[in-house]
């Protein structure tokens, strides 16, 4: 099977997978397709299943590649592999199940959707990473925040370590508010809609800028 064939087979289950991702998994030693006489990668069915295993472990359990590589080595040796108990709730196309925009969710619902414990959600709330209203309900985006915090916890980050991320986000939101405030102040519904759309676009641009600056800083770590 060619790399394009593997990609086509995996796309329905993993819409975000790319040829670059498949090559990266090979570079990391998770799969070793043989080469044809002309140098093209040729994947066996077993190779495709190893990739599916790796992508599933990343998507559902946020496992780092070194752990997945060790698990595959154990399976190759005939040893059993303990699967982590925490997993994301996903749809058939691999997307995280989240509440509709504007929805409010309880701590219990967050736990059900993310696999977090109530004490973990409470610790995140105390650190200001998720904020409940007076009725104890959280914005729908809290589900994604909790998932991200749980993933970082695998690397030793606690909610208190992430307070600076929250503070930075709040500062950036203040800057965005200064830009869109004149539109929002207008009385027409159309102006308010443009204000919301512009704020969302600016938030996306800020997120992209932050991600690239962070990658640049990490690259310079040596």
UniProtKB/TrEMBL annotation:
GO terms for biological process: regulation of DNA-templated transcription. The keyword DNA-binding applies. SUPFAM superfamilies: Putative DNA-binding domain. Residues 17-74 form the HTH merR-type domain. GO terms for molecular function: DNA binding. Keywords: DNA-binding. Gene3D superfamilies: 1.10.1660.10. This is MerR family DNA-binding transcriptional regulator.
């Amino acid at each position: 099977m060619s790399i394009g064939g593997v990609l086509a087979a995996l796309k329905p289950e993993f819409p975000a997978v790319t040829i670059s991702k498949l090559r990266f998994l090979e570079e990391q030693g998770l799969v070793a397709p043989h080469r044809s006489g002309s140098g093209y990668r040729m994947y066996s069915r077993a190779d495709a299943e190893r990739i599916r295993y790796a992508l599933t472990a990343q998507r559902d359990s946020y496992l780092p590649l070194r752990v997945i590589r060790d698990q595959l080595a154990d399976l190759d040796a005939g040893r059993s592999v303990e699967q982590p108990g925490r997993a994301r709730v996903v749809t058939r196309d691999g997307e995280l199940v989240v509440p509709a925009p504007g929805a409010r969710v309880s701590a219990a619902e967050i736990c059900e959707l993310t696999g977090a414990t109530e004490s973990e959600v409470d610790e995140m709330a105390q650190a200001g990473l998720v904020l409940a209203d007076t009725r104890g309900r959280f914005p729908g985006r809290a589900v994604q925040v909790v998932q991200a915090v749980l993933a970082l916890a695998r690397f030793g980050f606690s909610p208190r370590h992430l307070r600076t991320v929250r503070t930075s986000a709040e500062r950036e939101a203040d800057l965005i508010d200064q830009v869109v405030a004149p539109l929002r102040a207008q009385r027409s519904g159309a102006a308010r809609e443009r204000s919301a759309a512009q704020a969302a676009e600016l938030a996306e641009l800020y997120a992209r800028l932050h991600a690239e600056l962070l990658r640049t800083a990490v690259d310079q770590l040596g």
